[in-house]
Write a structure and sequence with these properties.
The chain is an alpha/beta fold and about 700 residues long. It has 14 helices and 35 strands. It binds 2-acetamido-2-deoxy-beta-D-glucopyranose (9 copies). One 2-acetamido-2-deoxy-beta-D-glucopyranose (NAG) binds near residues 318 and 412. GO terms for molecular function: serine-type endopeptidase activity.
Length: about 700
């Protein structure tokens, strides 16, 4: 009933967005972005301070934190509960695509070690690849690196080149990508820079991977029907033997014990051979504890926004405009179509609205495509999309106002005065999203159910509305018969190759670094993120250590190193038997002594506290390796996150390093009482020598499944 009550409130403070191009000149003669807010008369039972309410609406719709002095006038309007916000002139679009957003600028502005980059091989385990894509052209590439031992066995009519140096197929379909997913992920990790690309004009610009000079080897393990576990394990073992430097794998499922998950096993094998596996967190958010990537020898990646966002508007026939999230490339030329409720399969030549309720109660309108070609459809809710159905083009009404807008749409459709509601859909446009990065609601959240004291995901990277190469054989979205070379997709499948590209970029400067050193460098230099709202959905369980920062990760100062023996000790601490340990490591192992899983030398610290404990004390033991300057003194600093009442002590609190690769150990003691059962408590440990800030999240929680 609480939800219903909230809905009623929202119904009476509906927000309608209408962007127009009214010009405004400020006192100093300069053009300035100003806004006009039209406000309907508000229900008297609600308490409002209209001006501040307008301000907050503006903040929501513009994504700007400071809009002081920008609101020129608020009008009262007759219409009940309708607000229109008009930016004063056409929005300036300052967005940059994902690599620019992360600081890896195009061309000469990014430091690159091209000779090593060209010898770096990225293995992509996915749905295959489209070898003819310009993203994989070998123009300017020399022969494969000498270490390459792989093959090109992609089946009939499949040719490799000096960029796409290898392909293997485990599906008997051939390694050609008929789905689009594998082409998209491979080009995001290591595709060439291709200028002037877009999805029917949407997102136009240069598409490129993180390490465009690197080579790609494609391992096809998935078809439309899914990916088999034996194919995944074979692909890992072949990729390792072929000589790849890094593995990117954007597939997965629900959390499984390590010995039952061939992806965890394959990644363990890779780790022992010095190869880092970068893996997507999964698309089962925002509910807690759904994360399917749970092993400490894997870099697990959540998906977040960049400062370029796509929006799509529905203009109702009566003039009201709703803004939503979608990718609509069709120009309906302003023609109105009936708006109907219903099921996709039955409807034609109509804009279809389906509404669903998830735990977060967000309504989604999906728009069907007229058989002659208009908007496309994906009638499933975003969070329920499986890895293999990421070509989504539903219209979800914008995050900040989605409840209002969706409910408005429902109200519109239910309006007794309108027997035949109509509307039209505009083509998607790009806007500047100042709030970025924020984690997508679909991105799978912790806590980790397999190892409760290991924080997952590790980091977040761009994974929302990513333009990258696509398979011309695949439908851009369901029942869309057009063929495209580049398409826009969202998912942790898209963030994973971004992080893989970053890991490869680091490896080109530090070829001798082990997987754990790269993982640590990425995690401890990540941009700090903040809970954007309350609830598990927006904490470290969504973004781990924060957002990847490729440039900072080149020079982390200190790293938390792990070797195979540490991972074995961790598994022993989880009470794995010799039998299951053998399944994972492929060799006979006996556990010696007892190691608490939370003492694994991981770059983040997490502990689950029994809910029955009113007070608690936990210790984390860690050892850092000096990679900064030989002679350096690191001082520890604890930053408590908002609302956290933890007591955190670091012993010793100062580390004096005398040489490179020197290791020093310390203990972090965290105590507190009366933990919130709904929310984790967190802090950050930062080791700083004045130049490097080595940050680790500390998270304690009591969540019970
Ligand atoms: C980038 O570097 C190349 C080679 O050093 C040089 O020829 C080119 O002029 C540079 N471009 C810019 C924009 O600086
Ligand atoms: C090989 O595949 C490409 C892409 O699908 C196609 O255009 C071409 O006709 C095929 N060639 C043969 C000989 O089948
Ligand atoms: C991009 O495409 C447009 C139109 O096709 C063309 O005029 C322009 O030269 C292209 N730009 C580049 C950098 O290739
Ligand atoms: C994208 O297309 C628009 C409209 O055609 C054009 O003004 C803009 O310069 C293009 N941007 C890029 C990066 O090519
Ligand atoms: C459009 O119709 C809806 C539903 O009847 C109504 O709430 C809204 O105020 C109307 N908008 C305009 C601009 O008339
Ligand atoms: C995090 O959010 C809190 C309020 O939710 C705010 O007080 C704090 O300044 C934010 N911190 C950062 C780094 O944005
Ligand atoms: C492992 O077994 C010990 C002894 O039975 C127990 O105390 C501990 O809680 C177990 N650990 C896990 C992670 O299950
Ligand atoms: C929980 O309480 C028990 C009993 O007081 C205590 O032995 C245990 O150490 C506490 N656990 C933690 C994590 O503090
Ligand atoms: C290291 O730093 C200490 C204190 O700043 C200084 O006394 C010492 O000479 C330095 N050693 C080297 C090898 O630079």
């Amino acid at each position: 009933m609480a939800e219903l009550a909230a809905s009623f409130c929202l119904l009476s403070c509906v927000v309608v967005l209408c962007l127009s191009s009214v010009s405004a000149v400020t006192d100093d003669g300069q053009h300035k972005q100003v806004y006009v807010v039209y406000m309907g008369s508000l229900p008297s039972r609600l308490e409002y301070t209209p001006m501040s309410h307008h301000m907050s609406i503006l903040q929501e719709v513009t994504g700007e934190s400071s809009i002081e002095g920008r609101l020129v006038r608020s009008y009262k309007r007759k219409m009940e509960g309708v607000v229109s916000v008009f930016p004063s002139k056409k929005l300036q679009i300052h967005w940059t695509a994902s690599w620019n957003f992360m600081g890896l600028k195009e061309g000469n502005n990014t430091k690159r070690n091209l000779a090593v980059e060209s010898d770096t091989i990225i293995g992509v385990i996915d749905t295959g690849i489209w070898p003819e894509s310009e993203s994989f052209s070998d123009k300017g590439f020399g022969p494969p690196p000498k270490k390459w031992k792989g093959v090109c066995s992609g089946g009939k009519n499949f040719t490799c080149n000096n960029k796409l140096i290898g392909a293997r197929d485990y599906t008997s379909e051939g390694a050609r990508d008929n789905h689009g997913h594998g082409t998209h992920t491979a080009s995001t990790a290591a595709g060439n820079a291709v200028a002037n690309t877009s999805f029917f004009g949407i997102g136009n610009g240069t598409v490129r991977g993180g390490v465009p000079a690197s080579r790609i080897a494609a391992y096809k393990v998935c078809t439309e029907d899914g990916c088999t576990s034996d194919a995944i394990l074979s692909a890992f073992d072949d990729a390792i033997a072929d000589g790849v430097d890094l593995i990117s794998v954007s597939l997965g499922g629900s959390p499984d014990r390590y010995e039952e998950d061939t992806l965890s096993i394959g990644a363990f094998h890779a780790m022992t051979k010095g190869i880092l596996t970068v893996h997507s967190a999964g698309n089962s958010g925002p509910d807690p504890a759904m994360i399917g990537s749970v092993a400490p020898w894997i870099l697990t990646v959540a998906a977040s926004t960049t400062n370029r966002a796509f929006i799509t508007k529905i203009v109702l026939k009566n003039g009201s405009t709703l803004v939503g999230k979608s990718v609509n490339s069709f120009d309906m030329k302003g023609k109105n179509y009936p708006l109907v409720y219903g099921d996709y399969a039955e409807k034609k030549k109509e804009i279809l609205v389906s509404v669903y309720s998830s735990s977060s109660d967000i309504a989604v309108a999906t728009i069907t495509r007229d058989r002659q070609g208009f908007a496309a459809v994906c009638p499933r809710p975003l969070s329920a999309l499986s890895m293999m159905t990421l070509t989504l083009l539903p219209l979800t009404l914008t995050p900040q106002s989605n409840k209002q807008s969706s409910l408005f749409l429902i109200l519109f459709l239910d309006s007794p005065s309108l027997s035949h509601p109509q509307g039209t859909l505009l083509k998607t446009e790009a806007i500047f999203n100042q709030k970025a990065p924020t984690v997508g609601s679909f991105s799978s959240r912790g806590p980790n159910t397999i190892a409760v004291d290991l924080l997952k995901p590790d980091i977040t990277a761009p994974g929302i509305e990513i333009l990258a190469a696509y398979s011309p054989d695949a439908e851009p979205s369901r029942d869309d018969t057009r063929h495209v070379k580049y398409s826009v997709l969202s998912g942790t499948s898209m963030s994973c190759p971004h992080a893989a590209g970053v890991a490869a970029y680091i490896k080109t400067f530090h070829p001798e670094w082990s997987p754990s050193m790269i993982q640590s460098a990425i995690m401890t230099t990540a941009w700090p993120m903040n809970a954007s709202e309350t609830g598990y959905a927006s904490t470290e369980f969504a973004y781990g250590a924060g957002h990847v920062d490729p440039i900072a990760a080149l020079n982390p100062g200190l790293v938390y190193e792990l070797v195979k023996a540490d991972h074995i000790a961790f598994l022993c601490g989880l009470n794995y038997t010799s039998e299951t340990l053998k399944l994972i490591s492929g060799e006979a192992v006996t556990c010696s002594g007892t190691v608490l899983p939370r003492n694994l030398n991981y770059p983040s610290m997490s502990a689950k506290i029994p809910a029955s404990n009113s007070s608690f004390t936990v210790n984390f033991k860690r050892t850092v390796t000096n990679l900064g300057t030989p002679n350096s003194t690191y001082k520890s600093k604890i930053v408590l996150n908002h609302g956290s009442k933890l007591k955190v002590k670091v012993t010793p609190s100062v580390l004096s390093m005398k040489s490179m690769n020197e290791k020093q150990s310390f203990t972090v003691t965290v105590s507190g009482s009366d933990l919130d059962s709904e929310l984790p408590s967190s802090a950050n440990l930062i080791w700083s020598d004045g130049t490097h800030n080595v940050r680790s999240p500390i998270v304690v929680y009591t969540y019970e499944l």
